[in-house]
Amino acid sequence: MLLLAGGNACLNFLVGFVVGIFLSIFSFHFDSTLGAMNWRQSSAPKNENDTQNKDERSVADRLFHDIRILCLVMTLPENHQTKAVHVSATWGRRCTKLLFVTRRNDSSLPTLVVDVRDGREYLPQKTYATFNKVFADYLEDFDWFMKADDDTYVIMENLRYFLSGQDRDAPVYFGQHFLPFVGQGYTSGGAGYVASRESVRRFGRRNNVTCREFKTQFEDVEYGRCMESLKVSLGDSIDALGRTRFHCLNPHAHISDSLPSWYYPYVKHKQGKKGLEGLSDYAISFHYIDSYGMYVMEYMLYRLNTYGIRRGLQNLNNNYTKAKNAKFS
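The structure corresponding to this sequence follows.
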């Protein structure tokens, strides 16, 4: 019993230590433009002896080639140089194509301009305008369409791995599954959600009545209600061990299980593992990542290594979910 208690104390210390690091890191002030420029320079391979060149990327490169994803990042003109540039300098580089959805063009960013006012209350209109343009201009060029916020961090390799087990031609979309307001539930907007080509096609071809009236100002709820009316299934994205991949809060909140009171009543998989044990090894997204945190995530995921340890690939996709997720097809 003493040994067990000591082990638990050690585990609690380690979790607390990691959480403390995240708390301290995310609290730092960060100079936006200089930081983005410095990261682009420092992350580029310098020569054949550069450590990044020693990474085995053949599987990730194959998935990058096979699974084409258009990333749609919602932002505002005032956030272009304080948030959007950091998405562009970090995880956005791994999208097949990255577009920042905003009402004003910016020569320093790849933009998709929509004529919708800024503000949370206009997000449903902004989201609908975005997918209307995507349907008209980009539908056949991509397999999947990932919507995220400018403070969402997405691990694109893990997203592609998950999608490798799904069908782009099925009417389906994925994200963190919330339960209220919509019959089949809906996906958290902050965690990001990814829609198949067929789901975008159905959205673009909807009639003049479907998905026209907004009952709330919540973009994710309204998008979920629209998808259900178009018979687009909200698919299951948990991994083979029952752990979550999309996350509406930052790593600290999920690792420490210090979640707001509304969280468990909202999420579908509330009976699963919690804290560190509830997060998939192939997690896809986290929300509320500030500009400095974007680079912390980059370092932890793509630079930091443990000498002498080589990690193998895991099979964490659920074999049953491909058929289950296409229930409306």
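Residues 45 and 199 are 38 Å apart (CA to CA).
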